[in-house]
Amino acid sequence: MKRLGWKIGLILLAGCAVLRAADDRPNIILILTDDQGYQDLGCYGAPKIKTPHLDRMAEEGTRFTDFYAAASICSPSRAGLLTGRYPARLGIHRVFFPQHISGMAVEEITMAELLKKQGYKTAAIGKWHLGHLPKFLPTNQGFDSYFGIPFSNDMWADQKMAVSPDVVWREGADLNLFKFGNVKKRGPVPLMRGTEVVEYPADQRTLSRRYTDEAIKTIDAAGDSPFFIFLGHTMPHVPLYASPEFEGKSAGGLYGDTIEELDFNVGRLLDHLKSTGLAENTLVIFTSDNGPWELKANKKRRYKGGSAKPLRGYKFGTYEGGMREPCIMWWPGKIPAGKVCTEPANMIDLLPTFAGLTGAAVPSDRVIDGKDIWPLIIGEAGAKSPHASYFYYSPSGIEAVRQGDWKLRITNPRLTKVQREKGEKPKTVVELYNLREDIGESNNLATQYPERVAAMKKVMEEFDAELQANARKPVVR
User: pTM for this structure?
Assistant: First the structure.
């Protein structure tokens, strides 16, 4: 009898250990803005835009100075983020449009799918942009729910999209107009819940607040289960919109209005975590999908890009301004306050990092390019980037590699019409920069370090050969 009691005691202790392990699984909120510039937060040097809540988040957590998107345009960047793989491996090189019938392959394994196996409640909120047909939407890619615009906010509706019987029609729209009207390209976009349109046109002035409302509802509905929320804000992609409470308030113009409204809503989210006692078990990450547009203010189209200063370049390119992003990570009690990480890191590293934190298994049946960067996040003494090299891809292919402080960029710029008429041939441009000494990529050192150029070029070629041998075919356009 004593032996039986001893065994029962061991079983109960084991059960408590399992419960304690389950309780230790952190909640994760991944906030991704759209086309935000490197400088567009106070803690990154914004001269006119005020972001007190994100600045406080940085003061209470870790701010990365050298954090990279997986690509310099939306769809490839998001694919790399969610899968931990360079988007070129997925065959995703360009942006999906409403007329396309393709999307990220459902055979890919997203971080949401990994976390669901660990008992997480998962939700995607906001911009998706990895295919708008039902089989490509978040609810078929590991997320329990979806609420948002399925592509960029300057696109238009696919008239074949399913419409909810409870849809809210705005601005004179109705089902007949939606299904059979003359849909203009760059026209109104739909707001979806699950796989159905629930509002058309979407009221973009309210999206930052409504997305945050949805995130708070998701947190409250999770109960005792851990949750993973992918919160992909529509702003500050153009056209720009801000609510009446914020429009016209920022010294940074309408663009600044959108950032300051995002900042306010990040503050709402953090305050909710604190008030509900969840902050000490929740990892929150804030970053952007790629750099800002190179655009000037246009009142009619509400266009204006952000600032990538002091970096060179913009969205669409492989200079630092196109891919190096603001990134803040916050987890009270786990991430020490006031840390600044200057080591290179990339959004492809988040999937293996989340796996390490939650006990999930990183997929072993495919190449996962990302690596666990938890030591960098917590500021572990002597922690270095786990990557010997990071690679920069454009729709044309591999263009650059970073090794430590050094970056090699090799491109073949397109010829102008005049150059083609003259019979000129494309010239390969080779650029080598020391990013620690020359963050603006203004001093090309390629001719001074030919051996370094040759060695780094070889690394680029070897990596790309391996990637191409293991990549999906480019998605059908």
Answer: 0.92
Contacts of 12 (CB under 8 A, 6+ apart): none
Active-site residue flag, 74? yes
Burial of residue 14 (CB within 10 Å: 0-12, 13-18, 19+) is exposed
* Annotated active-site residue in 53, 93, 100, 129: 129
Q: What is the pLDDT of residues 194-213, one digit of tens each?
A: 999 999 999 999 999 999 99
Distance of alpha carbon 407 from the chain centroid: 23
Q: What is the mean pLDDT of residues 38-42?
A: 98
Query: What gap in Å lies between CA 34 and CA 222, rounded to an integer?
Result: 27
Eight-state DSSP code of residue 61: S
171 neighbors 201 (Cβ within 8 angstroms): yes
* Structural domains for the chain: 26-387 (3.40.720.10), 391-469 (3.30.1120.10)
**Residue 297's pLDDT band (cuts 50, 70, 90):** low
Least confident stretch, 7-11, 226-230, 463-467, 468-472? 7-11
Q: Choose the catalytic residue: 74, 233, 237, 341.
A: 74
pLDDT score at 5: 44
- Please name the residue that has the structure tokens 């949401």: 112
How far apart CA 99 and CA 14 sit, in angstroms, is 54
Does residue 322 surpass a pLDDT of 80? yes
Give the span between the Cα atoms of 82 and 77, in whole angstroms.
Answer: 9
CB 165 within 8 A of CB 195: no
Classify residue 303 by its DSSP letter. Answer: B
